Amino acid sequence: MIENNLVVYNSLSRQKEKLVPIHAGHIGMYVCGPTVYNDVHLGNCRTFVSFDVIYRYLLYLGYKVRYVRNITDVGHLLDDGEDRMSKGARLDNLEPMEVAQKYTNGFHDMMRIFNTLQPSIEPRATGHILEQIEMVHEIIKNGFGYERNGSVYFDTLKFAEKTGEYGKLSGRVIEELIAESRDNLKNQDEKKHPSDFAIWMKASGEHLMKWNSPWSVGFPGWHLECSAMSTKYLGNHFDIHGGGNDLKFPHHENEIAQNIGSCGCQPSNYWLHTNMLLMNGKKMSKSDGNTISPTELFTGDSPHVSKGYSPMVVRFFMLQSHYRSTNDLTDEALQAAEKGFKRVMEANKTLGSLQSNIIENAPLDSKINEIIDGAYSDMNDDFNTPRALARLFELVTVINSLKEGQIALTEVSSSCIEKIKTSFHAILFDILGLKDESDTNAGPVDGLMQLVIELRQLARTNKDWPTSDKIRDSLNELHIQIKDGKEGSSWNYK
Ligand code: AMP
Ligand code: ZN
To answer: From CA 135, how far away is CA 217, in angstroms rounded?
Structure first.
């Protein structure tokens, strides 16, 4: 059995709780994935990076984790009632599934660039229409759903009265819900109660994505898909459900209602919510121009930044805020993150050359052990990445002092140096998911280097020696060397 001291903040109980899995050694985690009707934005990335660290830490602790993150490719409506996918299709002049594929591909690329691990299962809503229809049946059978003109609504008032469960997650009372219900206003008159929400919607003639059902040719409600897919892959009752805190209401509140309404079971023991990414202190918003895409941030092609920042600098920056705090993106904060990230990566390289002749029990060992243990305690305290990073910086100071000779190498034992190495590696790379960008040939640098290699080859073929010499000398200055072999040319850092 895995012993853990991990506590997580459960939005449902509004307190930190020890994480006790339903099945020892196993964790089932469902995270609401993106709606793939346009390019993934940085706010989405922040949420998925946060859950990536949570996933990585659970794996690090030794759990066998089934991580399910869906793709929403139907049913997520805009305030005017249009399906987001149909809108994407109309704007791009594409078939809706082409839109879904295009932006799913883009989303996967971005997740790779941010070095996130792939989920264990990535179900699509359109691939689970039968399961959703089945759930609507169950909800109607249990008396919590009713049909009106081919659409089926969830009866929130009846559910609230019978179970007392509606509004528990969001902390809203039914009177507030009446006032605030914003679900597809044009169908308001069909509902018994304004806070009732559609679990199946009859499609209009021009609607592009629709399926046969016992009630109408239509499509499932957005909230329903997550209930159906989490149940299918994780069972009626699983460990963790996550998403951004903007999803608490109505999405997650309604998911809970649907699960209880269909199987009598609260779906998840722990509800984890990430906070929003801001820019210059304000919510990122396309409409007032306060937005930057991940690519603009990497290239620096935006009035909001003075230069481009690499994906790992952006990831490092995100991890400097706790996932439940807002994360305020500013040029100054990114510059500071860039410096910090470089410092940590350089210290990691320095570590490789540190050696001590004392085998064990040197004077500074216990202080260093305390710092390392502290970093793991921070991760155990609801995944406190900013505090864990602060501990790593304490280690960086020790490493640099050892290198510069301010601390004698006799002060730290060789076993303690080994422990710094393994912990540094585990925390930075395995848990926080950072990588040393200077070490890898992946990403845009590789593409650019291939171009340089081709230009050099062209110059040589044309006997343009000044150009090929210039390329060689410039690369030399950048500590890059090109090796010519039978299979072609390759490059590496010297
Ligand atoms: P969506 O594609 O809008 O369904 O969102 C996908 C995920 O990103 C959800 O968990 C949202 O809560 C989350 N999200 C959306 N906007 C932001 C933001 N500005 N900051 C952090 N997370 C966000
Ligand atoms: Zn969801």
So the answer is: 17
